[in-house]
Design brief:
2 domains; 8-stranded mixed β-sheet; alpha/beta; single chain; 7-stranded parallel β-sheet; globular; 18 helices; Rossmann fold; binds 1-(beta-D-ribofuranosyl)-1H-1,2,4-triazole-3-carboxamide
Length: about 425
Amino acid sequence: MSTYPRISAQLDDVESAREEGRRKMEWARQHMPIMEAVREDFEANQPLAGERIAMAMHVEAKTAILVEALAAGGAEVAVTGCNPLSTHDDVSAALDDVDNITSYAKRGVDDEGYYAAIEATIDLEPTITVDDGMDLVAAIHEDYPELIDGIVGGCEETTTGVHRLRAMADDGALEYPVFAVNDTPMKRLFDNVHGTGESSLASLAMTTNLSWAGKNVVVGGYGYCGKGVAKKASGQNANVIVTEVEPRRALEAHMEGYDVMPMAEAAEVGDVFITTTGNRDIIVEEHFEHMQDGVLLANAGHFDVEIDLDALDDLAVDRYEARDGVEAYEMADGRRLNVVAEGRLVNLAAPVSLGHPVEVMDQSFGVQAVAVRELLEREHADDYEPGVHDVPDELDREIAEIKLAAEDVDFDSLTDTQRDYMGSWDHGT
Ligand code: RBV
């Protein structure tokens, strides 16, 4: 049994923290029409009645709206962070004050505290897990396998988590079904592209007070996140350079008009580096050695392994905080390489960062909520074997339709003749 304290027991002035947290949540709520509709439906129909949900996500205002909706649907929820720097303590405190919700999330925890808080959520003996990065699934399988029989399933928010889950499933080690929420169109085409693009650039600009215009911005990886970062940086008048290992993505970036080159070449000309690969060791010693004085190094991938900070530390003769959220590493020849937000998710871990814009998280969390509901529709339960599952397309469409209605956007429907035509193979010329 964990004795890890909930956030309310960790803060000095809990009352004012809660008040500020509620204010942030109220602002988010006003811009989350999908979650509003989901919450109303959950409140009325109680689809999660009696369930226990453990969550590890970035605990800030938008996530709080998802947590509240799950509790409103009848579940008891225990939540913690999925990154040591992304929690907003005030929001965490406000959540912890809601009926049926316990929050253990605290900003700035060390490794030990981070995992202790995850264990504290597992103490709830969850029937459902909701992860961003798969740390909960991993902890349950490694340390609490006896709980697996009682778990209906899980949902995973991010690309890195889905990769880890697929690796686990390929090894035959994943013992309950998990929905790849990340892979839905309503998540990936908006959150990964626009969300990562906008929020990473906004956090970097706010943290450094520097301009994009005329800068050489090196984007590591041209997946959905890299595409968003490249597009938005280009829109801010930067010269975008893309590095890739996948030939078709490299070609796509080239045809989009970006410069494509190996990191070894990009290292010499880049002013700002933003990694988005989900892999490790994207920027390493041989690159640091050739960088210009004053470069900014930032990561927008889930884990802090894309920039090799140990190697950078070994090369440095001095190291100091250049600004809040910026650590300067000084090389023997006097060059200063500036690491933003400790190489952790820059859009969530920088001191001024707010995560993705509210509108895109409304979509992502709308899909999360209906995916949780789907896990519990008992008539479907047999369909979901242990392993990674796509979220059924009709659920994703449901979320898109709510959003379009909220935006007052009308769209066409297929006629019967068109449907028939699309379904046939014998209409030639
Ligand atoms: N993300 N969450 C936020 N709550 O502000 N911002 C981004 C927030 C999620 C996003 O969906 C992405 O897949 C994941 O964080 C990476 O950890």
